[in-house]
Design brief:
Elements (H helix, E strand, L loop, with lengths): L10 E4 L7 H4 L5 E5 L4 H4 L2 H9 L3 E5 L8 H14 L3 E7 H13 L9 H4 L12 E6 L9 E6 L4 E6 L7 E4 L9 H19 L7 H23 L4 H14 L13 H13 L3 H15 L1 H16 L5 H18 L13 H15 L11 H9 L3
Parallel strand pairs: 1-8, 2-3, 2-4, 4-5, 5-8
Antiparallel strand pairs: 6-7
Helix pairs in contact: 4-5, 7-8, 7-9, 7-11, 8-9, 8-12, 10-11, 11-12, 11-13, 11-15, 12-13, 14-15
């Protein structure tokens, strides 16, 4: 196991009717900006509950944050924050709203000429940020319990991430009942997103990380068991609660401590989103099996362990490693998430060439040991036609 430090300062408030706790969690006298996405919080009653809990606090609102939050939109929120003297941010929504709000929190305090430097430097220029709380309504990204965010810039067709300890939410409210009205696409995407977050930290290289392995296997098994339940019965509280908690635990830092994360599927997937606007989880479902097949020999031991412990396979490690990729693809498909570019009408050769060119320009190599060159990435994408 590698040396590591682990700290997670976010207070997680989990369970039914916990939105009412906002009255004690948001600092007294705060000037609050509520951020949200397309407006589902008005239809499902969450907005009403949030405003009631905030009582007579000073509140402004900013909506329209996209599923892949855009720099251009978020800078409008930064301007509003500065104009209104906002000193506390409250995203109400899923991972995109939380990610976008983390950027707002950092950009509002950034005094440089171009706030895109926050992304270009992977957060290196972030020296201060506004405090954030969160009300989660779509479990998927784990953004409610980490300091990471991914932002897109329409002007340059880029999608980059940043991390800073200053943008961890102070608290996050996780009420599974807020997810009852999610449609099947959002639900399936969320399960796949959490699943791949877990495998990116688990199917890497052997590190004698016994506890982290069992942690990951528990999350994967739970998602396999509970994911189909939430599709079949969206109001199943127990299933929704287990999926929500799994998504949070998948990316709150503890499971990946001491491990070299892969993240190739994310790096490649971000470019597919930047070029074609695909949902994040759908890019992961396409790319992950291709990465595994391309690196089958290197990842054979870990894939065989995954197949044996999570899927109950037995036999020769090489056979298990190959078979479990097929089972993983089938699981994504069962959650309503396609695993091929052609199912989205995207030309795989064109996509491969675009991503190869971009990674060549950045001199970027992917994978836990940097073994995937831009040319390898192109081959992986072409294989997912």
């Amino acid at each position: 196991m590698l040396n590591f430090e682990f700290s997670n300062p976010t207070r997680l408030v989990f369970g039914q009717d916990t939105i009412s706790r906002l009255s004690t969690l948001v600092p007294k006298g705060a000037r609050v900006l509520i951020t949200y996405g397309g407006g589902s919080i008005f239809r499902n009653g969450v907005h009403k509950a949030v405003r009631a809990a905030l009582g007579d606090a000073f509140v402004e609102e900013f909506g329209g944050i996209e599923p892949n939050p855009r720099f251009e939109t978020l800078m409008k929120a930064v301007q509003l924050v500065r104009e209104k003297g906002i000193d506390f941010l409250l995203p109400v929504g899923g991972g995109s709203v939380l990610d976008g709000t983390k950027f707002i929190a950092a950009a509002a305090k950034y005094d440089g000429a171009d706030a895109w430097e926050i992304l270009r430097t992977t957060g290196g220029v972030v020296k201060s940020a506004l405090p954030i709380g969160a009300v989660l309504t779509l479990p998927a990204t784990g953004s409610e319990a980490n300091g990471s965010a991914v932002i897109s810039r329409e002007e340059t067709t880029e999608k980059l991430h940043f991390w800073s300890p200053l943008v961890y939410p102070v608290f996050s409210i996780l009420d599974p009942t807020t997810t009852f009205t999610l449609d099947s696409r959002q639900t399936g995407n969320g399960v796949v997103d959490a699943f791949v977050h877990t495998t990116e930290q688990y199917v890497t290289v052997h590190q004698d990380s016994v506890l982290q392995d069992r942690f990951a296997e528990g999350i994967l098994t739970t998602l396999i068991e509970e994911g189909p339940k939430v599709l079949a019965n969206p109001s199943d509280y127990a299933a929704r609660a287990n999926v929500m908690w799994s998504a949070t635990m998948a990316l709150q830092g503890g499971m990946g401590s001491g491990l070299p994360g892969d993240w190739a599927s994310h790096g490649i997937g971000h470019e597919l989103t930047a070029f074609y606007g695909l949902d994040h989880a759908r890019t992961l479902a396409i790319v992950l099996p291709g990465v595994w097949r391309h690196q089958l020999e290197m990842k054979k031991e870990r894939l065989a362990q995954y197949g044996a412990r999570v899927w109950g396979l037995s036999g020769e490690p090489a056979w298990i490693a190959s078979r479990v990729i097929e089972l993983t693809e089938a699981f994504f498909e069962s959650m309503g998430v396609p695993t091929r570019l052609g199912e989205h009408g995207i030309d795989a050769k064109e996509a491969g060439a675009k991503v190869r060119a971009r990674f060549t320009e950045r001199n970027a190599k992917q994978g836990e040991n940097g073994s995937l060159s831009p040319e390898d990435v192109e081959k992986i994408i072409v294989s997912r036609a």
